[in-house]
Amino acid sequence: MKGLKRTVTAAAVAAVLAGGTAQAQVSDNLIKIGVLSDMSSLYTDLAGAGSVAAAKLAVEDSGIEKRGYKVEIVSADHQNKPDVGSAVARQWYDTEKVDVIVDVPNSGVALAVNQITKDKGKAFLAVGPGTSDLTGKACTPNTVHWAYDTWMLANGTGTAITKQGGDTWFFITADYAFGAALERDTTAAVTKAGGKVLGGVKAPLNNQDFSSFLLQAQASKAKIIGLANAGGDTTNSIKQAAEFGIVKGGQSLAGLLVFLTDIHGLGLPTAQGLIFTETFYWDLNDQTRAFAKRFAAADKGIHPTMVHAGVYSSVLHYLKAVEALKSDDGTKVIAKMKEMPTDDPLFGKGSIRVDGRKIHPAYLVEVKKPAESKAPWDYYKVRATIPADQAFRPLADGGCSLVK
Question: How many domains does one find in the chain?
Fold first, then answer.
């Protein structure tokens, strides 16, 4: 028995020493993750506290803490203001020793954080923002763009609807970086598919009254009214379009970025028949359903959106890269993330390109009629799967300086 005790003790000492070595290059022996999100406004349900919950689940499932690493998660509200987001990012990086910023559902804020992250040599897992410029003209070696982007949305939804006969469009666009990128990318997709854009109008972010914009869209006689907005702006415009009888009048709405939480807020009687593109749905398979059950228990019963799924997936892969490198140096970790194939329960197997674009399939979905829904949050029918190699912009077309 004495010999056995000695062996166990030696093994325990070896494990402790291995843990110490593993942490040797991790600053302060702590991996600090900052979830920067919208905690109080129009994107709070699709991201917000749910993004913090998703990050915690990723840390738990990674098992990294059992192997001697310490992980801390902090969070803040960027208030959809680039100056506020920038100030938080600088404080986190400079004084609070945050290693990686995750989420950031606002393209204007994300572009600012993207630049600061590059300047500080840290890491940015952009999940919530849409602008495809993050892997285009604004690409950096320090950012990975995860769940979706405006090119994917435009080419999934815009192309499909145009080819199905919705060949004249009018845009109601959120008046900031995301809306501009989404309208630009959708216009290109519609035109390429043989359609025509008749006009458009810009609406302020977090707008409550869409009546004047909807009247202009109605007057355009366009077959499709493209909603180049998100979150509360999308649900408000859809609700008010119903009040104006726009769909009954023969025009159709194309939600260019719609989340599960938007459909939940609208209800199936209002949302039924909407067609849009997603990269994640909680009811795809046994693994996504198991995650949704755990997530809902952690986030007031809300089922995960593709942003929540993207936060989970990106944090999981980030931690794998940190552990493989035994370092939390931001530039090196992002390079390692690109080098390693991605594999997780929510998006399956995938990869990260040199421009920072995470590659996985996308899904063209249609909202079920109330009679078709069998349970709470059972909202989508998957109409088509867009393969990973077709879902995102071709590498050569983005204008990213990292692409040789």
Answer: 2
